[in-house]
Specification:
Blueprint: H1 11-17, H2 19-42, H3 47-70, H4 79-84, H5 86-94, H6 101-133, E1 143-147, E2 151-152, E3 155-156, H7 158-173, E4 179-182, H8 187-196, E5 204-207, H9 213-226, E6 234-239, H10 243-252, E7 258-262, H11 269-281
Parallel strand pairs: 1-4, 1-6, 4-5, 6-7
Antiparallel strand pairs: 2-3
């Protein structure tokens, strides 16, 4: 099942192009919250209300700031937290009689719209968790697919390391299991990491062409079949946020994959889950 036609831009390439928008949303939300805080203080809002709204607004903004400090470049996953940070201030402003009527109406509409946006994301978070929350236990010969992620200087990123650590544990538990490591420019580093962790090279199949999740699944299945893997189950190992989309692509290919979750590093937890929701909603592969 090879690739047909010219491959489009990957999610990472699109994300780099949207970097200024992601960073701009963070900065704009920060300035808007600060301006609203000053306006509310001048309008005579009680210190307790200001403190509560400031704290609730600051949490997603602080999360974005920490993400920027610990990762390379901005992520589209920073946009939803930036928008969520406006909800407390907008809600407080729309109920404050000391502000002009037009500003209160605008604040109320903004709060309502963003609250709906927040609820939509929460619903998707629950759906995404359902992909792996009740997954069956693996058979002893279940084949594993480990989906690629960022590799820096030839080494897997912390996010990818969590996937590989889970895969290594599963491989040590059952000597009949094989694993496909999938991703263009990532498979070699993934295989080397597993070998350094004590996994026999003969059990590792490299898939070095996939540019997105859909290709990860399709080409990994092809690689397993090409190597004559006859298993009772096929399992996909990836970070928790990523498994709904992986399972969905498997179903489109006629395969019911068992989802095995690796924990997402806390430094990018909110941004990764939000990024994944945006990817799903806009039809990303």
């Amino acid at each position: 099942m090879g690739r047909s036609g010219k491959a489009g831009p990957t999610l990472a390439q699109r994300e780099r192009a949207l970097g200024p928008l992601s960073l701009g949303s963070f900065l704009a939300a920060t300035l808007t919250c600060a301006w609203t805080l000053i306006a509310l203080a001048h309008a005579g809002t009680s210190p307790a209300e200001l403190a509560a709204a400031t704290l609730l607004s600051a949490l997603p903004l602080l999360s974005n700031a920490l993400y920027l400090a610990g990762h390379e470049g901005a992520s589209i996953g920073m946009i939803p937290p930036a928008l969520f940070s406006l909800i407390p201030m907008s809600t407080l402003a729309c109920h404050h009689e000391g502000l002009p009527q037009v500003l209160r109406v605008f604040a109320g509409g903004t709060a309502l719209l963003l609250a709906c946006f927040f609820v939509l994301f929460c619903i998707w978070f629950l759906r995404m968790r359902g992909a792996y929350a009740n997954a069956p236990s693996l058979a002893g010969d279940a084949a594993l697919m480990v989906l690629g992620a960022t590799v820096r200087d030839g080494r897997p990123s912390p996010t990818l390391q969590t996937r590989l650590d889970v895969a290594a544990r599963l491989l040590r538990e059952a000597p009949l299991r094989q694993v496909v490591v999938s991703g263009a420019g990532e498979a070699e580093a993934m295989a080397r990491y597993l070998e350094e962790d004590g996994i026999e090279p003969a059990r590792i199949i490299r898939e070095e062409e996939a540019l997105n999740t859909r290709e990860n699944i399709a080409l990994s299945l092809e690689a397993l079949r090409r190597h004559g893997a006859h298993t009772t189950q096929m399992a996909v190992v990836s970070n928790d946020y990523h498994l709904w989309r992986a399972r969905d692509h498997g179903r489109k290919l006629g395969v019911e994959l068992v989802c095995v979750a690796a924990r997402t590093p806390r430094s990018g937890l909110l941004q990764q889950w939000c990024r994944e929701v945006l990817t799903i909603l806009f039809g990303g592969n």
